[in-house]
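Notes to self after the Tuesday call (sharing in case useful).
The group wants a holo model before anyone commits to mutagenesis around the pocket. I volunteered. Ligand is flavin mononucleotide. Logging inputs and output together so the record is complete.
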Amino acid sequence: MSTLTKLALGVMGQLRPRPAKGDARATIKLPAPDKRGGLPLMQALARRRSSREFQAKPLPLPVLSSLLWAAFGVNRRGGGRTAPSAINAQEIDVYVALPGGAYLYDAKAHTLRLVASSDLRRITGYQDFVDDAPLDLVYVADHARMRMVPVRQRESYASAAAGGIAQNVYLYAASAGLATVIRAWIDRSAIANALGLTHDQQVLLSQTVGYPKA
Ligand SMILES: Cc1cc2nc3c(=O)[nH]c(=O)nc-3n(C[C@H](O)[C@H](O)[C@H](O)COP(=O)(O)O)c2cc1C
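Result:
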């Protein structure tokens, strides 16, 4: 769908998900992430960039597993994560829009939990490439987890936390030969409705990931 069509539908509140491709499984237990591989950090930084041309080819489950662990997985005893959060509130939830459905990443169980049995990729942004790239991540802040943070600071702290996660995805993508782009040009109400979010939950950013177009 073109950006113009999406903008017009967005104004009317009519930007809707597509039917899911195939049967969505209620939970997807991810295989263990590969924590040994990858480029040395300085080489990954040298390759980090935003790309907006993706193949439709799906990401294999082991790649999705490592990507989500790099993004915001549990990386130590006690439940610490790969990205920081103010007073360790861990307020960002990573939603995973796949052709077969939309999932919440449960980092502790390293499992995807189905939240919507439709293909939400189209509504994760106004740019046309989001429709067919194999994966769109959505970063959502749960303000209920930030009760210890002064109200006026909550959005900026959550945005900083989401930025850390996004950069982890950029570095994993650079290391694994994937393309990615973080996106703020999104219809937050359409996404919130499709994901069934509560009033405490705020859609911050989306990020597309896939194999680069040759
Ligand atoms: C907060 C934020 C929002 C962004 N929103 C979008 C967006 O909606 N669409 C897009 O294509 N790129 C978006 N970008 C990516 C920037 O355009 C990109 O990072 C910038 O052009 C620099 O390019 P580089 O990432 O390759 O260094 C965003 C970046 C940030 C940090």
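Two things stood out.
Residues 49-50, 52, 127, 181-185 surround flavin mononucleotide (CB under 6 Å).
The chain has five helices and nine strands.
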